[in-house]
Design brief:
Layout lengths: L1 E4 L5 E4 L9 H11 L1 E4 L6 H9 L26 E4 L17 E4 L9 E10 L7 E5 H6 L3 H7 L3 E6 L17 E6 L1 E3 L6 E3 L6 E4 L4 H15 L5 E4 L6 E5 L3 E5 L9 E8 L5
Parallel strand pairs: 2-3
Antiparallel strand pairs: 1-2, 3-14, 4-16, 5-15, 6-14, 6-16, 7-13, 7-15, 8-9, 8-12, 10-11
């Protein structure tokens, strides 16, 4: 297994077949060190991807998982979620609709126990667009002014799931039934011991205990810091790519792509503990 660091963070892994009997400890060590791992030229069935994912920890079962034929024509196994802009013959989506641009977010941050790992495998891709962009939340925290670090120390942020792609969560009075949970604004990664900012533009709604205007101004500052263009890793997909990222210390978003282009990726996840 060869590890080639990417710029400004992340790593590309070569010399490994994820369908085989891999050294999972070496992969985890590389993942903790680099936050995002890119494995090129993989040929993975659903069983292969599920087996690899299960070795990383308890798998998350998406509430959007379906068991009928997926967009690639194969029956969908439990634990698989399709990330696609395609629709069934009746016009319904394969789970959540995944088309166009999507703001930065962290998967399942609105749950008590968010996903630690997201693992995405590319099957069919548009010729243009659709890159996944990653931001380093260790670096985002470390780059904050001392005064801002003091302001967010001990603060919690309400994370909300409304499944808008390009909109901030609506005011609290308008979302009583939305999935939501308050997590610390700064968390400590349980494996690395490093502090990471745990907010994102798509799902972070409000700072607990702050007036609305003050909360929004603080969150905007944190969003802008975390989305510094000079510190973004942009992954341009190829069929056969498998990318895994750590939701505890990264956020990710999707670049726009043509509405008429076909995009099919297969997602599995690992569920973790409540961040602290």
């Amino acid at each position: 297994m060869q590890i080639s660091p990417l710029d400004p963070f992340g790593a590309e892994i070569t010399g490994i077949d994820l369908a085989g009997d891999v050294d999972i400890t070496a992969i985890q060590d590389a993942w903790y060190a680099h936050q995002v791992l890119v494995f090129r030229d993989q040929s993975l069935s659903q069983d292969d991807q599920l087996r690899f994912t299960s070795r990383l920890g308890p798998m998350g079962i998406s509430r959007n998982t379906i068991t009928d034929a997926g967009p690639s024509g194969e029956a969908t196994q439990p634990g698989i979620m399709w990330v696609t802009n395609l629709r069934r013959g009746d016009g319904s989506a394969y789970g959540q609709p995944h088309g166009g641009e999507m703001w930065f977010h962290s998967d399942m941050c609105y749950a008590e126990k968010p996903y630690t790992a997201t693992i995405l495998y590319a099957i069919e891709l548009p010729a243009l667009g659709g890159a996944t962009r990653f931001a380093d939340m260790y670096g985002a925290y470390e780059a904050l002014p001392g005064e801002t670090k003091q302001r967010i120390e001990g603060k919690s942020v309400v994370q909300v799931h409304e499944y808008h792609r390009l909109e901030r969560p609506s005011p609290e009075a308008e979302r009583p039934d939305a999935l939501q949970f308050a997590h610390p604004a700064v968390i400590v990664h349980p494996e690395t011991g490093r502090k990471a900012l745990f907010v994102n533009r798509l799902m972070s709604a409000s700072v607990v205990g702050m007036e609305a205007d003050e909360s929004e101004a603080l969150l905007e500052e944190l969003f802008d810091r975390s989305e510094d263009p000079a510190k973004i890793l942009s992954h341009n997909w190829r069929p056969g790519d498998l990318v895994m990222w750590d939701n505890r210390c990264t956020i990710h978003g999707r670049a726009d792509f043509p509405e008429t282009a076909r995009r099919i990726l297969r997602r599995t996840t690992v569920i973790g503990e409540r961040p602290s």
